[in-house]
């Protein structure tokens, strides 16, 4: 339509100044309306949520019809509005309150109509029996709803109108809103069929431009028999039943045309369009046919109407809603309907937590200037972390999704496939049933910090120089509290979480200049070059000349075991047993090999022996769960067995990472207790439970017993999260393979001997049990400077020879992750002012000073590796701040680890498998011969007991 844009710019003014700013405001207001629904539910003492408004229906019918007049004026013809056109319609008549009350209670009344033009096109018309809104805009509308939430008595309503509302909008605005409400509700309503209903907000009407519409009684609608018995709380329903038993009910649809911004404003819903200025022009007749509403068929139809989420944006571009109130309705009605149907959730913070939390949080912030959280007594340290996480949730979740702004018209969305309510989808869609694409394959990485895009500093200082001076492993520095399984595990997890798509070799690439006097071979057998070259990441194009710093995740963001199962349906089904079997394909207990010599699994990039051991172990675990399910539930088909086993294994992996791997690498009592609280709830200590009850009630249960909560932004993993999980120093360069029964050395291998296609030969030769034992008794590298694996500083990937340490630096810079000092400050730590504040090692300080011109130039990865971590920590406190935010978020956003972590979805056996399971149970189920070697009183990621080898001659080798 040629002038749609013109109408938009001429008549609409965006709250906050821009469509995007307004969208963010509306999202917050929509969240507030979900809280209103919760308060109304509690006040009405019902289990079920109602609509935020118009909760009580008096009529719901599916067999209405609307017919446009034969003499429809030419200027009002367009789209579905054509002379003589007749369409089926669904009609709902209701009281306007958010709580079901007696029909005699003073209230507005409303009508909702869905006109079904075709299977692809419909139009929702919503109107109320007063010509103007009590609110000028969405903020006022929500403020009024919050003030009146839960008000079921005269006293509570008076408090809402005369105390809460003035506090929210000011005395003058509150007075005007009260007057509008009194004018709208003072009239006695005897029949909803005899009311006139006004849209109160404008819509576009094709080429005619903005209009408001109204529905007024037509024909004999006002004629009736006896007056209803007003003492009956449902007398409006009774009146409609009696009326429809003897006659049709009809309304005339009329439109009022826009005149000018002053007298017929589009943005202000509190201004009436008087008929003396904008006459009501009849365009169609809506008819509800005479019928018996007490038949089973009519009652069933009424029940179906109650499930409908009406939304004025369910229309076409030619008839899209206009104005602030209407624009807010899209987000608000979507959220309200999703909340009502159990697709979206809200968790209210108790008042005591709000009141006590503010001073407690301020006190901890002040205390942290002198004493960091990890030096406080245990209980105080844990509470400090609670408030740190609150601050991070509030300030460090940045939404990077490209949203629709301003809102656009849309067809009525199809309901989610019922199958997806009980299983994880192959590509991560429909974890959040109200926003199917959230966290799915292809969803963009979010941000914890505002990105800093500085192309002029991409090569400053030279990343090759940084790597050689500060990252190169001179001598292997072990992490003696861990074993190499911990290194394999985190790569196994990262492959589930994050993967940036790269251009194919020969396509777009990054070129890093080599330091003077040095060269690099970029391909096997290729020439020596003065640049290091590797494939560039594929970014998401952004409008308006924005820098290319938004990237899609080719893995799903959810904790769904996709490294084992694959990221799409085709891969997942290919990995399964033939003929639709539920198990994963194995070749004599090992992963089957693909044509390139690398195993067939969900994600096999950067393959090495550690990944092979983990993938093999959990493929076997999946099959063990399948066997148990088949035995326990013989009638369960193979498709259900497969998906249930995937749920169980994915949840078990999440639990192992939460309560075993993380406390192993962050070996402190506070972290161990905090993470177990995340999963299981707090320990049985009245003092700790009292502290949480007073300050953070949501932590009184484990996250699996809570509702999903995305906090300040749609769920995604972040570029900053990717940065702090660059833990390549964990990988040793040399691996000694030993036999677990007698401790004999089998062979010593370099990383290249167990990487890529060589990995499967190695694990088949050594066996899974001996491979796990060899890793269990060996230490990984410490996550620190001067400890990057040499093998990863020159290895082949996809036909390129790369230095992964340089790639890590370059990727972080080009993705706009702030440099280390800005990174610290953004995570609420004090900036460092000197190199000596970062490291106590004089050699490191000298090298830092030689490489960087100032502390503000230090690369994020370098700073994180250089930082002196808290006692027992395997990585820095700065990195830990991203971890404490995102580790909880990965659980709390996931429907299958919160509201749907229940026996009905997982089966009782599956829930029990997760509750009782852990890394030890997985290891011993598939390698029971390792039982005596696992550490006592520690996780499987701590060093195992070594078997002393038997020397020649029969004695123990004591050399």
Keywords:
single chain, 959 residues, alpha+beta, Catalase HpII,  Chain A, domain 1, nine-stranded antiparallel sheet, two-stranded antiparallel ribbon, 17 strands, 10% strand, elongated, disordered N terminus, disordered C terminus
Quote the beta fraction: 5-15%
- Please identify the structural class as seen in this structure: alpha+beta
Helix content: 25-40%
Note the main sheet.
9 strands, antiparallel
Just name the CATH architecture of the domain at 4-340.
Beta Barrel
CATH class of the domain at 4-340: Mainly Beta
Number of strands: 17
CATH H-level superfamily title of the domain at 4-340: Catalase core domain
Based on Cα principal axes, name the global outline.
elongated
Pick out the low-confidence regions.
1-9, 952-959
User: Count the helices. How many?
Assistant: 29
- Fill in the CATH topology of the domain at 4-340: Catalase HpII,  Chain A, domain 1
Estimated radius of gyration: 32 Å
Quote the average pLDDT. Answer: 93
Cα distance, first to last residue? 88 Å
């Amino acid at each position: 339509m040629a002038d749609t844009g013109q109408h938009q710019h001429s008549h609409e003014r965006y709250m906050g100044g821009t469509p995007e700013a307004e969208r963010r405001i509306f999202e917050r207001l929509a969240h507030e309306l979900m809280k209103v629904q919760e308060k109304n539910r509690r006040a009405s003492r019902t289990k079920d949520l109602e609509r935020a408004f118009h909760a009580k229906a008096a009529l719901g019918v599916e067999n209405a019809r609307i017919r446009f007049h034969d003499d429809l004026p030419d200027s009002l013809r367009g789209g579905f509005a054509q002379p003589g056109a007749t369409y089926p319609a669904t009609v709902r008549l209701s009281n306007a309150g958010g709580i079901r009350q007696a029909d005699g209670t003073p209230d507005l009344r409303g009508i909702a109509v869905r006109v079904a033009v075709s299977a692809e096109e419909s139009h929702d018309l919503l109107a109320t029996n007063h010509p103007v809104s009590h609110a000028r805009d969405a903020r006022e509308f929500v403020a009024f709803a919050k003030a009146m939430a839960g008000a079921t008595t005269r006293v509570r309503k008076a408090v809402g109108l005369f105390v809460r509302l003035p506090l929210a909008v000011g005395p003058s605005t509150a007075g005007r809103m009260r007057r509008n409400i009194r004018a709208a509700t003072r009239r006695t309503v005897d029949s909803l069929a005899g009311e006139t209903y006004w849209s109160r907000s404008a819509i576009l009407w094709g080429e005619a431009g903005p209009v408001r519409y109204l529905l007024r009684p037509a024909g004999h609608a006002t004629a009736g028999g006896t007056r209803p018995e007003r003492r009956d709380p449902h007398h409006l329903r009774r009146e409609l039943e009696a009326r429809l038993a003897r006659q049709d009910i009809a309304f005339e649809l009329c439109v009022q045309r826009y005149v000018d911004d002053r007298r017929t404003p589009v943005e202000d819903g509190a201004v009436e369009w008087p008929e003396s200025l904008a006459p009501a022009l009849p365009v169609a007749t809506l008819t509800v046919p005479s019928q018996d509403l007490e038949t089973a068929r009519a009652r069933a139809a009424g029940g179906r109407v109650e499930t409908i989420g009406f939304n004025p944006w369910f229309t076409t571009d030619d008839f899209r809603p206009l104005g602030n109130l209407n624009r807010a309705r899209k987000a608000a009605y979507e959220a309200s309907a999703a909340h009502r149907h159990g697709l979206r959730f809200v968790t209210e913070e108790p008042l005591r937590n709000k009141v006590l939390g503010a001073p407690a949080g301020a006190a901890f912030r002040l205390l942290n200037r002198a004493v960091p959280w990890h030096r406080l007594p245990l209980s105080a340290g844990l509470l400090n972390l609670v408030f740190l996480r609150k601050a991070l949730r509030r300030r460090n979740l940045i939404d990077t999704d490209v949203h629709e702004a301003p809102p656009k018209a849309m067809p009525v969305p199809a309901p989610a496939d019922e199958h997806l309510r009980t299983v994880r989808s192959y590509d991560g869609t429909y974890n959040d049933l109200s926003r199917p694409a959230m966290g799915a394959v292809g969803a963009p990485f979010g941000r914890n910090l505002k990105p800093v895009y500085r192309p002029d500093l991409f090569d400053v200082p030279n990343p090759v120089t940084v790597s050689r001076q500060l990252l190169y492993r001179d001598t292997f520095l072990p992490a003696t509290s861990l074993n190499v399984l911990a290194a394999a595990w985190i790569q196994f997890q990262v492959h589930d979480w994050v993967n940036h798509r790269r251009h194919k070799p020969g396509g777009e690439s990054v070129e890093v200049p080599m330091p003077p006097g040095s060269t690099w071979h970029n391909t096997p057998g290729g020439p020596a070059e003065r640049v290091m070259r590797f494939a560039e990441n594929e970014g998401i194009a952004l409008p308006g000349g924005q820098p290319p710093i938004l990237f899609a995740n080719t893995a799903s963001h959810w904790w769904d075991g996709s490294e084992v199962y694959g990221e799409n349906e085709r891969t997942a089904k290919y990995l399964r047993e033939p003929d639709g079997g539920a198990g994963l394909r194995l070749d004599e207990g090992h992963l089957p090999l693909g044509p390139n010599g690398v195993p067939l699994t969900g994600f096999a990039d950067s393959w090495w022996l550690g990944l092979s051991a983990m993938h093999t172990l959990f493929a076997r675990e999946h099959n063990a769960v399948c066997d148990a399910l088949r035995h326990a539930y013989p009638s369960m088909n193979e498709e259900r067995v497969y998906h249930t086993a995937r749920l169980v294994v994915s949840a078990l992996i999440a639990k192992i990472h939460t309560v075993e791997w993380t406390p192993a690498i962050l070996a402190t009592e506070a972290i161990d207790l905090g993470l177990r609280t995340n999963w299981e709830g707090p320990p049985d200590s009245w003092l700790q439970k009292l502290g949480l009850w007073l300050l953070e009630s949501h932590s009184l249960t484990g996250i699996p017993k809570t509702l999903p909560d995305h906090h300040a932004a749609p769920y995604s993993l972040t570029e900053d999260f990717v940065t702090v999980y660059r833990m390549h120093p964990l990988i040793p360069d040399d691996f000694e393979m030993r036999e677990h029964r007698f401790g004999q050395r089998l062979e010593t291998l370099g990383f290249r001997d167990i990487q890529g296609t060589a990995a499967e030969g190695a694990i088949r030769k050594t066996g899974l049990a001996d491979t796990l034992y060899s890793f269990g008794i060996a230490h990984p590298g410490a996550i620190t400077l001067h400890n990057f694996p040499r093998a990863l500083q020159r290895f082949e990937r996809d036909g390129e020879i790369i230095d992964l340490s340089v790639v890590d630096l370059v990727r972080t810079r080009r993705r706009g992750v702030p440099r280390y000092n800005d990174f610290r400050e953004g995570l609420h730590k004090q900036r460092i002012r000197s190199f000596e504040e970062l490291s106590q090692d004089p050699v490191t300080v000298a090298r830092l000073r030689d490489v960087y011109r100032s502390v503000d130039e230090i690369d994020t990865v370098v700073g994180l590796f250089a930082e002196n971590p808290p006692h027992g920590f395997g990585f820095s406190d700065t990195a830990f701040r991203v971890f404490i935010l995102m580790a909880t978020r990965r659980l709390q956003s996931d429907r299958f680890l919160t509201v749907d972590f229940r026996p009905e979805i997982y089966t009782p056996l599956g829930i029990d498998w997760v509750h009782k399971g852990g890394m030890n149970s997985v290891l011993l189920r598939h390698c029971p011969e390792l039982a005596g070697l696992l550490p006592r009183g520690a996780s499987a990621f701590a060093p195992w007991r070594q078997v002393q080898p038997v020397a020649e001659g029969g004695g123990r080798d004591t050399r």
